[in-house]
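Hello Y.,

Per our agreement to keep a running log of every chain we model this quarter, I'm adding this entry. I've kept the format consistent with earlier entries: sequence first, then predicted structure.
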Amino acid sequence: MAQPKQVDIAIVGGGMAGATLALALAPLCKSIAIIEAHPPGVSQPSFDDRSVALSFGSQKILQAFDLWSGLADEAASIEHIHVSDRGHLGLCRLHAADEQQSALGYVIENRVIGQALYQRLASFSNIKLIAPAELQSLAYCDEQITVTYRCREQSEQLSAKLLVAADGSNSKVATELGISRSQVAYPQQAVIANIATEPGPNGWAFERFTEQGPIALLPLTKQRYSLVWTLAPDSADAVMQLSDAEFCSSLQQNFGFRAGRIVRVGERHCFPLSRQTLSSSYAKRAVFVGNALHTGHPVAGQGFNLGLRDIAELVELLAIAAALNVDFGNDALLRFYGERRKDDIHQTLMATDALVRLFSTKLAPLALVRNSGLAALSNCSWLRHQLASTAMGLRHDLPAVARGVPLAEVSRQPKYHQLKALTSAGM
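Predicted structure for the entry above:
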């Protein structure tokens, strides 16, 4: 086999997380390789008919990486959020105007994101997309990690200072590196579709909790909503078999008329739901981001937002490493990344899990607690502000770029001096 090609960073996985990371790193690196199992473009599984609800903080991250301008025209604003509990009186409304913002977040279809990211990838000469290619093995040699992959019926190799795993919830990188994954399966499945209502969304997003699970309607462009209907497996199978008219009628009965009359439904898909986390977010010369590191219930729409915060943290630390002339695969740097991400990941997944269990229970005392909570939110502006700030991704401990700090100014953040001390001590 020929001498391995050398790159600064190798990314395994070219979906939304991997492609976003490559574009964010392009100004920092001389050479980046993306190893992707599927052919280039929208055939990548993460670029499907689903949609993502981007928090305000996630929009700031994409803006800092100069990626938002390519998505803004296809983004539908969330100006209001309506939360209710079927069969109970409690409800809560959040409004962007109350937070002195034009939007609480934005909704974009995955397919649109995929097209924009891959068009942008093609414009960078220092990003090489290797696809379709299958990861075969990993090895270490001379302060590099060597990736062996199969592409066009031939085995090839490349070496990198750092490997980033963005290869999804069944990460082969994690398997190759011997990192275990914990998994909790929810007794639910998510039915996904785009629907049309009369009247259209007008900036409203809805989350309606039912005994089987939440129903989320997120505003899209072209007078549509993105639907995520969480159901018990048998019920999910049943609604997947309904005609379009029957499906709309069943959804209307369960959701109500807050979003108007449901008049059409597009292609439907069904996905099992689980919570998964790796035992470690890093290994020797390797880190994990996005679904390769964690997956959760879609109830709060935090999946891609959490992954973007992984990416933002990693890019900020690598920008500091470049300024300090520190090896991208430095052990202290990777440990620091793991420490920086640990609390956010744990708190987000546990809060989401608690929300699912609280709003799915039939126990009267817990039902009283959740409805009292919704009533308190409805009547207390301070509580609504706290909830809105969390939903918008504006907590103080988030990556700097999620708080509107330009990437070029990250060196002024406390983490610059922390990382400088850590990497100096490890030399």
